Amino acid sequence: MAHNNAAAGNAPAVNIAEQLAEFAVGVKVSDLPRPVWEKSVHHIIDAIGIGFASQHFPFAAPGLAGIAAAGGSGEASVVGGSLKLSARDAAMANAYLMHGLDFDDTHPGSIVHPTVACLPAAMALAEVQDQSWGELIEAYVAGMETCIRLGLAVKGGFHHAGFHATGLLSHFSAAVVAGKLLGLSAAEIVGAQGIAASTAASVQVFLEDGAWTKRLHPGLGASAGITAAHLVRNGFKAPRRPYEGRFGFFETHMQAHVGDVDYACIVEGLGRDWALLDTAIKPYPVCHFIHGAAEAALRLHAQVADKSRIVRVTCELPAPTLPIVAEPAAAKVAPRSDYEAKFSAQFVVAACLLKGRFGLAELGDAALQDEHTLALARRVAC
């Protein structure tokens, strides 16, 4: 009872889904500040480029083949090839490719990859409906603000509870994107978010063995968001308070920490203060929790002439990130796949110190088996 009272005491006076929906309906490309437009274009191009790059990696073909086999043909394009699928399936495929290298943009405060949570649904629907670039940008911007602000509200809480925040929030942002492009009313976009609360579930068990499911999470969200918008458009009765309602999204996913949710920041300044402007394009294809340590190691590369003399490296990280990028240490110092390497502070720091760079080549099979890198990784203490 105390748990529910705490949640109720912290809950907002306004309906969050209604505020996000009204914002989405009201977004007009002609009203967007120039920096919002330009940043949106840059991040969209970045994501599409990553999609092309992913086509050259081993995870691409099996994932695309599975999505195509389970889906159906259509008029929506899959980035980097000739495959055409239905809008839902193309959105899933493109999200898989855009997130596949973990090189896509990141909003540090919300700990989400927002573009991949919004763009795949926007691209697929805008293409099949022959909509304009401006209409795509409007939907993208509405989705970005939805995704980022929901992530900011929990202060990293989803990750600490074992959920992949991008995977969770992509369901809601894609529902808003789809609702905008399908011309839904604000009330209908509320319903689409309501349905998304039942589909959002992205667990981080992939960290145990480098499985590919994280790559798929935003694609599942894109497909679910499009589905939710179509359901509501056809009269489906949906929940009206998906975020703050009893047994709603925040209570079920934050559980004992639901009292920590900052509901106000989701809607405060919406349409005036643009959260998407704080999104960063990644300089390295690794978990962004490691980027500070990687940057430090790269700067030290030139200062340490004889790397064989390094006895110990101490890597300081925020405590809540340790289980994700540094523990268990025995597994992190010997990553078995590129994905395990992306989430190993020990490996990334060692490679940066030795090579003075960290790009996609540093995640190849030869790089993962390099004895010098692995030996130094064993001397990195986090």
Task: Describe the protein.
It is a single chain. The protein is mostly helical and 382 residues long. The chain has 20 helices and 4 strands. The protein has a two-stranded antiparallel ribbon. Strand 1 and strand 2 form a beta hairpin.
Features:
382 residues; mainly alpha; disordered N terminus
Please describe the topology of this protein:
Layout: H1 2-10, H2 16-26, H3 34-54, H4 60-70, E1 76-77, E2 84-85, H5 87-99, H6 114-128, H7 133-152, H8 157-160, H9 165-181, H10 186-199, H11 213-233, H12 249-254, H13 264-267, H14 291-301, E3 313-314, H15 322-325, H16 329-332, H17 338-342, H18 345-355, H19 365-368, H20 371-377, E4 380-381
Parallel strand pairs: 3-4
Antiparallel strand pairs: 1-2
Helix pairs in contact: 2-10, 3-5, 4-5, 5-6, 5-11, 6-7, 6-9, 6-11, 7-9, 9-10, 9-11, 10-11, 14-18, 18-20
Indicate the radius of gyration in whole angstroms.
21 Å
- What's the average pLDDT? 93
Strand content: under 5%
- Summarize the helix and strand pattern as letters: HHHHEEHHHHHHHHHHEHHHHHHE
If helices are DSSP runs of H or I spanning 4 or more residues, what is the number of helices? 20
Contiguous low-pLDDT stretches (5 residues minimum) are 1-9
Percentage of residues assigned to helices: 55-70%
**Tell me about the biggest sheet?**
2 strands, antiparallel
Distance between the termini: 40 Å
